[in-house]
Amino acid sequence: MGRGGKSRTQRKHFRQSRENVWKRSKIDPNSNPNDENRTQTNSNPNPWTPFATENPSFDHYYKEQHIVNEQEWEQFVTVLRTSLPASFRINSSTQFADDIRSQLENDFAHSLRDEVAEGGETEAIRPLPWYPGNFAWHSNFSRMQLRKNQTLARFHEFLKLENEIGNITRQEAVSMVPPLFLDVHSDHFVLDMCAAPGSKTFQLLETIHQSTKAGSLPDGMVIANDLDVQRCNLLIHQTKRMCTANLIVTNHEAQNFPGCRLNRNRERIEPDRHIDQLLFDRVLCDVPCSGDGTLRKAPDLWRKWNSGMGQGLHSLQVLIAMRGLSLLKIGGRMVYSTCSMNPIENEAVVAEVLRRCGGSVELVDVSSELPQLIRRPGLKSWKVYDKGTWLVSCKDVPKFRRSVILPGMFPSGGSYQDLVDSNGNADMGEDISVCPNGHSEDGLQAVENPANHQSAEEFTDFPIEHCMRIVPHDQNTGAFFIAVLQKVAPLPAIQEKSKMEIVEQYVEPVNQSPEDGQALQINSSESALEEISNAVSEENVNANEKNTEDLEVSPAEEQDSKETKEPPSIENVEKKVPAKRKLQIQGKWRGVDPVVFFKDEAIINSIRAFYGISEQFPLDGHLVTRNNDAGHVKRIYYVSKSVKDVVKLNFSVGQQLKITSVGLKMFERQSAREGSDAPCAFRISSEGLPLILPYMTKQILHASPEDFKRLLQDKDVKFADFADPELGEKAANLMPGCCVVILDRGNRSATESHKVDESTIAIGCWRGRARLTVMVTAMDCQELLQRLLIRLDPEKGSSVPVDCSS
Ligand SMILES: C[S@@+](CC[C@H](N)C(=O)[O-])C[C@H]1O[C@@H](n2cnc3c(N)ncnc32)[C@H](O)[C@@H]1O
């Protein structure tokens, strides 16, 4: 139930990303005053300027690619020009999932019915029909409407609070689709290659945790990776709301994600090793893309859009997908997805990957899965647009463009090598410029530009129709592309070579036109970034200021993009460190907190004894800290067995993984003031409480709903002031320090009422000299109080806003 605070850097990031582009009020300084698309007049010097939601190049490009058929074009672009309705998902693994769903179904769906409805929708909010269990919802109000309309304030507050707590996640509807097709089971090892800001990671974790019983952890785990350190911070913040011990967050180039393969000799020395290499049952490959599927949410893209954006990302997307497949177990599933509509980033990438895998990877036909989701088959044919010319085959590419326009971008693939005949004569793509008189500038007979000789339309042989494209006007969403792949055999060895070839092509500093230059931009407007940022109010940021340390990821030092195989010795690294600066080092990674197994038996035993933690709850090898100095450990994190195995493997392979976050915060050292007369130096954190509670036998109190409510409202109650005098007495008999108060479940028998299970509601408190003080955040109090009121008195609870901030 807990959450962390936010660092200053993170707040800045939130604020920047929170800017709502639809709200822009000033004239865009970058826009061309002669641009026909500008809509303001000169008479008013500072009018509100809506975005020009059109771009002739966009129309030309996608009409020619037949992204939708001719008759639908108008409907397609009309919907693209409207703002995106909000959508959100209930965290199906939270203990309040059912309560929240019925609140939406029985309360909000009715009370909001009379509010503004747009876009042909008749309901204010409705479950997304294709999402299992009514856990995902479409709201027919844009964010702007939610913020402005007073009658929607209660709903808006509800969304904000539940999002912050982690009970719901605001997420674009189409972005929820890829994890559903991944078919994740609770024992799966899952890699999310490009994970920030983490809405899909959250979904994957939910699935892993879905049927977990109180006090147990699933066998599986998720590694969520992102290249961008700042976005990794968002990812950590987002996933912290999940309170999971089964997650590792890493910071790597996905295309070079480490395999952590242990060499054979090492295996013999350590026979008890559980895993000897990182291989995954599932891989989510939600790659960086041009992002034109998010136009409804990021209308500034209309202005920036050009076809080169997608072309420049194609190679990276292929590389990332290939790395994902090489880390996938045989029989495992990988989902490749983008929020772009461009076939060069979608069908072309999938076709190229299938070509390279030579039969070891298959496209899965998922047409029978999620039947209510309207989707369109992948295109069998597409073209490449370059320098004002449509190219249908790699044979059409002029030589001087071959470093930019790759054969793999075309439906049949091919190779520029094949275009050289057996005598070594150059192919049609000879790069001789043609003068208007038909002769080349050097007087030789000119070879025509191949672009003037268009080849016949190409079709791919792969069953690309198994891929799916979701378009906005089918179900009032953004656009997305999804391909489901299964690895059926080891990848051909040749892959390593082609990987290097493509790396060279990718990094080659070709003379790129401004169009090509733009192509390397990475889509940072992905839905969830804005979604999280909107959900974090300034108020919450300040309220959580104290917890900022938890979220800090030390700024990573510049890393070579090629990560070296052998880690430099720590001594060498330390020598370079200025004497006074405390540089965090995690194996070969500088500037990142170390991951250290916590083995201090004296402390572990004192914690076990103080809280009466049963031996059935394994602590040995499951505790980690982020501090090499055992004497100054402030927080101890709990990791699942699966995560423990990966962390151990990582140590054995020289810490190839750069871990930015790991584990569930379980114990926190008392501050000097709190802890001076407490026999145990560590308190249990609210995040870790649900996991450890079933194993605790000491420092526990049971409170009636009345006293529990009192605690949540007042935060601090004298023993003598409890309605139930027995509670006050029992509290006085506890050891001073951290304790847990469990809500009694009324009319059940004492044994039943005291049984801890998934529905148990409990909070951490501090037993002082004469009073109990609640140790959960104001927001958690507010949420619990609200849930309690709804359970005790559904009529009252759903309509009374609870203010717990005092
Ligand atoms: C489309 S977004 C991912 C959205 C995310 N899956 C979600 O659902 O919240 C693409 C992400 O890829 C990251 N990225 C860009 N290049 C990368 C690379 N070479 N390796 C890993 N991540 C990369 C970006 O920082 C960005 O966060």
TrEMBL record:
One of its GO terms (molecular function) is tRNA binding. Its main location: nucleus. This is SAM-dependent MTase RsmB/NOP-type domain-containing protein. InterPro entries: MeTrfase_RsmB-F_NOP2_cat (IPR049560), MeTrfase_RsmB-F_NOP2_dom (IPR001678), Pre-PUA_NSUN2 (IPR057285), PUA_NSUN2 (IPR057286), RCMT (IPR023267), RCMT_NCL1 (IPR023270), RsmB/NOL1/NOP2-like_CS (IPR018314), SAM-dependent_MTases_sf (IPR029063). Keywords: Methyltransferase, Nucleus, RNA-binding, S-adenosyl-L-methionine, Transferase, tRNA processing, tRNA-binding. The active site is at 339 (nucleophile). The keyword S-adenosyl-L-methionine applies. Belongs to the class I-like SAM-binding methyltransferase superfamily. RsmB/NOP family. Residues 1-55, 531-574 are annotated as: Disordered.
